[in-house]
Amino acid sequence: MKIRAVRVIVTCPSRNFVTLKIETECGLYGVGDATLNGRELAVASYLQDHLIPCLIGRDASQIEDIWQYFYKGAYWRRGPVTMTAIAAIDVALWDIKAKAANMPLYQLLGGKSRHGVLVYSHANGRDLEETVDEVGRHIDMGYKAIRAQSGIPGLDGTYGVSKIKGFYEPADADLPSESVWSTSKYLNFLPSLFEKLRATYGYEHHLLHDVHHRLTPIEAARLGKDLEPYRLFWMEDAVPAELQEGFRLIRQHTTTPIAVGEVFSSIYDCQQLITEQLIDYIRTTIVHAGGVTHLKKIAALADLYHVKTGFHGATDLSPITMGCALHFDSWVPNFGIQEHMHHSELTNEVFPHDYHFEQGYMYLGDKVGHGSDIDEKLAAKYPYQRAYLPVNRLEDGSMFNW
Ligand SMILES: O=C(O)C(=O)C[C@H](O)[C@H](O)CO
Ligand SMILES: [Mg+2]
Asked: Which domain holds residue 324?
């Protein structure tokens, strides 16, 4: 199965996506997602200028060797650009291998461990009342697990709250927009949101919240304690996670479950978090952490330490990543939950896929490979548009975490 041709496809059907397509001499092809939100062209160039020349002519069936070749062979290891590029190749190769075996990808991984994949959705509102209503709407849609994000009294706009109702896209400007943050306003407000949610809807549904890297460990410990009566499924990204031992302090003070990892690119970013049991859910994704090949290692390590998976699934991860993640989720023994944020209709048209939502779960069809594809003709109609994620400043103007 010699690799004959490889293409990078950059398209913007509602938002930017980078896709890699690998074609073999025997006529099979595979696709992988290479989207790194706000830094898309860096990965496109890494693939185009540095990896593709070394890929042509290789045997597409040698997934492990190709992974090691690009990881070890670069000399410069890890990092989001490198690992996203490797992931795109890896996912395209798993797609080809499963197609060659005439099987859906989950069969190659070891078969299904569950009939459906539990997903959580995003509910958000400009204030407490609107957020409570939105959670109700998601319950009516059939979701069993819902993430709640709300505008904060006294702050103009914040992560996770849509400008247009029903559709949230954080990469919202061709130069970074700026928002203002106040930790005290946030900490004073947030517990009242979850108090109201539990008072309104009871305890049957899972509720989640994303702090989005904006607290210190002791602030996160306090928030975790304040939220304990509302029994969250998890508190996500409570602190910036470069300092893994920072989670020890949070862990010592609260029983609110802890999730982290969407910005991690390698097992070494979460090794201490897992082996010291400082977290409950690992959120590394196929697209940003080296593909199926590397995620298998992370998930296996996590399984030894009672840590479950909870993969990132925002709209900047294309339907190719979502499809591939659902195969992984269907198989992985220590599955926890999968994030699910709806793509726009246009994104779904450009990326035909083989999964659907029903009563709180995602279900895979029976297509061979990972089941997602790209319509290249349609993709060509939507050229790249520069878009950045916002930045955050404190009320005194200091640069802060978004
Ligand atoms: O989905 C989440 O939990 C996120 O935090 C979304 C991220 O901000 C987004 O994917 C950044 O590109
Ligand atoms: Mg997050």
From this structure: 108-367
